[in-house]
Design a protein that fits this description.
MarR family transcriptional regulator; MarR/SlyA-like; three-stranded antiparallel sheet; Arc Repressor Mutant, subunit A; 69% helix; globular; 158 residues; mainly alpha; 3 strands
């Protein structure tokens, strides 16, 4: 067994890659990427919003988000409009075509759930909760790496 198979980080990496590849296969007929799909899901569920709030929700920076939204606007899925009262704020809204995509892509979540082996909503919720907990822990580590190094050093010198 390769050494990487014993690493949690590699298991997460491999799961992420293959999940993204599965989404790519499902979304290819619509020429959509996974980030574009999650932007659509956010707009379908949360409605019109600013580029800033969408970027926050998707955890994407403006350098990634703006070109992606431009491609989606060119495809006719959404519009971006500057607010008249503050032109620095850009609002993103779905077009009729973007709204119709919800029906066309309704099979995607079921396909992903079936492919992942999640048998019910409770098992999906459990996995989501565990991954959110991991994400928060890794954000804390990212933001405070010295704390983790200090804790590790303290445990091994005590």
């Amino acid at each position: 067994m390769p050494a990487v198979d014993q690493l949690v980080c590699f298991a997460l990496y491999a799961a992420n890659r293959t999940t993204t590849q599965a989404y790519r296969a499902l979304l290819e007929p619509w020429n959509l990427t996974y980030p574009q799909y999650i932007a659509l899901v956010t707009l379908w569920n949360d409605g019109e919003q600013t580029v800033g709030s969408l970027g926050e929700a998707l955890q994407l920076d403006s350098g990634t988000l703006s070109p992606m939204l431009a491609r989606m606007e060119n495809a006719g899925y959404l519009t971006r409009t500057r607010r008249p009262d503050d032109e620095r704020v850009v609002t993103v809204a779905l077009t009729e075509r973007g709204v119709r995509l919800r029906t066309e892509l309704a099979h995607v979540p079921q396909c992903i759930a079936a492919g992942s082996g999640l048998t019910d909503a409770a098992s999906a919720r459990e996995l989501i909760d565990a991954l959110r907990h991991l994400t928060e822990a890794m954000k804390d580590l990212r933001d405070h790496p010295d704390d983790a190094r200090d804790a590790h050093a303290t445990r091994h010198t005590a």
